[in-house]
Amino acid sequence: MALISTRAGGGSIDNSRDPYGGWDRHGRTREMRWMRGSTQIDRHAYTYDRAGQRLTQTNSPGGTNESQAFVYDGLRQLKNRIRGGTIRMPKAKMNRA
């Protein structure tokens, strides 16, 4: 079994021009796939906000999807983790002085 960090179909995940495209331009993991020959055993994909905090994590062991979403407070501290089902991110509230 081998760990592959390239996008399905080849190429990089974003415009970082990195041929080993499992990471974004800031060095954060975007996608990892574990392969046995040409068969995908497992896949992990991540998304991040502008502050670099992980927003979502999707694992796909054996063709299933297991999703998590992460919610942070105004101090960028982890407030909640939502597992499974449809993930809907709450809208940010703006405090106006």
Descriptive keywords:
97 residues, mainly beta
Describe the structure.
This protein has strands spanning 2-4, 31-36, 39-48, 54-59, 66-72, 78-83. It has a six-stranded antiparallel beta sheet, with no helix packed on it. With 97 residues, the chain is mostly beta strands. The protein starts with a strand and ends in a 14-residue tail after the last strand. Mean pLDDT is 74; it is low at 8-18. The protein contains no helices and six strands. The protein has one domain. Strand 4 and strand 5 form a beta hairpin.
Topology of this protein?
Blueprint: E1 2-4, E2 31-36, E3 39-48, E4 54-59, E5 66-72, E6 78-83
Antiparallel strand pairs: 1-2, 2-3, 3-4, 4-5, 5-6
Question: Quick summary of this structure?
Answer:
It is built from no helices and six strands. The protein is mostly beta strands.
Q: What is the global morphology?
A: flat
Radius of gyration: 16 Å
H/E element sequence: EEEEEE
Number of helices: 0
- Structural class by helix and strand composition: mainly beta
Biggest sheet character: 6 strands, antiparallel
> What is the rounded distance between the termini?
56 Å
Give the helix proportion (percent range): under 10%
- Average pLDDT works out at 74
How much of the polypeptide forms β-strand, as a percent range? 35-45%
Task: Enumerate the spans where pLDDT stays under 50 for 5 or more consecutive residues.
Answer: 8-18
Tally of DSSP β-strands: 6
Multimer state:
single chain
What is the domain tally? 1
Strand order of the largest sheet: 1-2-3-4-5-6
